[in-house]
Amino acid sequence: MIAVLATAATLIAAAVTPTPSPSPSPSPSPLTAIGTVTVVSGAPQVLHRSPQAASVLDGRQLRAATAPSLDGALRALPGVDRNRSNAPFTNYGQLRLSFAGAGSDRGSLLLDGIPAQDGFGGQVDWNAIPAAGLARGELLRGPGSALYGSGAIGGVLALSSLAPDTRAGGFLDLSAGGVTRENVTFASTGAIGPFASAITLATRRLGYGVIPPAQASPVDHVAISNADVAQVRLRRSGPRASLDLGALESDDAQDDGRTNDGFSRSLREAYATWSGGEAALLSVTAFLRSTAVVNLADKPAAPGALLYTQHVPTSDAGVRLRWSRAAGGGDLALVAERRSVTGRSDQLTAANAVQSDVSGTQRLDGLALQRTWDGRIGAIAGVRYDAIATNALGERHAAALSPRVALRVDASPATSLRAAFGTGVRAPYLNELIRSFRIGPVLQQNNPALVPERSRSAQIGIDVANAAGRFALDYTATRVTDAIGFATIAANVQQRRNFGRTATDAYTAEYARRTLCGSLRAFATSQHDRVVAGGRTQIGKRLAYVPDAAASLDAERTVGIVTGGLEVAYTGPTFADDLERQPLGATMLIGGRLSMRTGGGTTMTLALDNLADARYLTSLDRLGPPSSLTLRLSIPLGARTAPAPAGC
Prior knowledge:
This protein is mainly beta and 648 residues long. Helix content is 5%, strand content 58%. It has 5 helices and 35 strands. The protein has helices at 2-15, 59-64, 70-73, 145-148, 430-434; strands spanning 36-37, 45-46, 54-58, 108-111, 114-115, 134-141, 155-161, 169-177, 180-192, 195-208, 223-237, 241-258, 261-276, 280-299, 302-326, 330-349, 354-373, 377-391, 395-410, 415-426, 437-439, 442-445, 453-465, 469-481, 484-490, 493-498, 501-514, 518-533, 549-559, 562-571, 587-597, 603-609, 617-619, 622-623, 628-638. The longest helix is centred in the first third of the chain and has 14 residues, at 2-15. The protein is globular and about 65 Å long.
């Protein structure tokens, strides 16, 4: 695969028309720790003055993380409930989102503005999103359904990949060592005819022993995870309109340490966005995506012997229209969306006999209206109507109205106070309605009788910033009715059900500071999540895979051509079930990185993840990555990076 990437890089570099390019800003730079954020309202605004809590990681921070995958790098983003997903070595159905303690599947993910969760199952294919290919990650914390629709109960994570550019540039990243057998990312920008382009090619191969000792068997071997990704973005800009085209192709597979235990998956996606206008801006986006999963499970009583094979093909298409214009010190926006999902799941025995074959369709329509105001007092007021039509083991219809109001007051030039309230909705995924699966010895059953979740959330916070740094403290309360979760109905059998009500109270404090030669980022979260109404055995119990606390520290310092960094991440206790009988425990991970940059911009880095070799569970049948020392090499393409600023 490395040879293929090298050949592709040579061909692409030859096809790109080079143009003069200014040297990029040195790294680290003397910028403030205060940036802008778009995910809160759909329009850029200063993070410090956002009416609702948000968090940001830039592309450099994501690339520098010592974690071997993107979901691990996001442990440094305040508000992400890192539920031990360990994407390269986890059953794909467990890769869920939770923000601000709201609970699994109560968050939405966008990649370049396109819904990035699987339309059939709601899981995230993190392996299709290489961290090195991202330019930015923004997280809206708290109610988001008023703008983003079904699923955005606890917030929205918006990821942006490398943007198209007519200037020739890019990089080649290579790494190996520890759990990383091979990791290569090639990224290039430049003019291709009338289009600005951004092309990313990535391949990754990881391996280590993932099976906990208590579940080990004589047939176990080292687990292997592979992922290959190709992404192309094109943009043609004119004086009054622009056209964006994009395509993403990904193939990944996991051998989870035993014969007949793992899966393979493919993803194909294409999208187009047209934007135009002067006094008012109109943008229309359409996307088409198909995925296919082949999932193998072995017998709990006979490890390595095939229990079943599942095939899960899905097609997903959508269109989104956004109209906006300036209005009286703010903006007025109208959003209309339609998304259609078709999915199927079959299950075959080892003898190729059909055990189940089910399918379904779902259509989600949304219409949102939003008004924003800026100034010393800023605000967002919006409402969205969602209609959900599902045909899966029966036909059903649902609708919801989700309002949001957010207010920000500048108490002083350095201090902003904010408060927000909103409601939300989450329709059950087709996967939850029609598909059962097994994780280790536990059978997790579908339930065609599920109804949509509804929520209400409130948030208050304070944000203090100056030229060097920023501190924010926010409280978010989330209440969910008809909450969907797994209920234990027998030994080693769980079924999705609507609980009566869940409640989460989350407190998040974050601090960021950047100087000419260093930076410091830190956050701490404490959250009390529990079932407050429902079955007698569930009341008072914690939400599955939602930690009760989380914290992160990242400190970096540059001296001459050498940059050193320290990473500390803590995830508090959590459980894998509704009865608190399957604890996953707390985890403290310590990492570090030491980089040396040449005058031409090439950087060599030693990255150490999990310094103390902490052994911890990411799920009932998976261990987290062990201590891993990786050698990384980053070679800039096109314009060279300037040396470190004087004084470092």
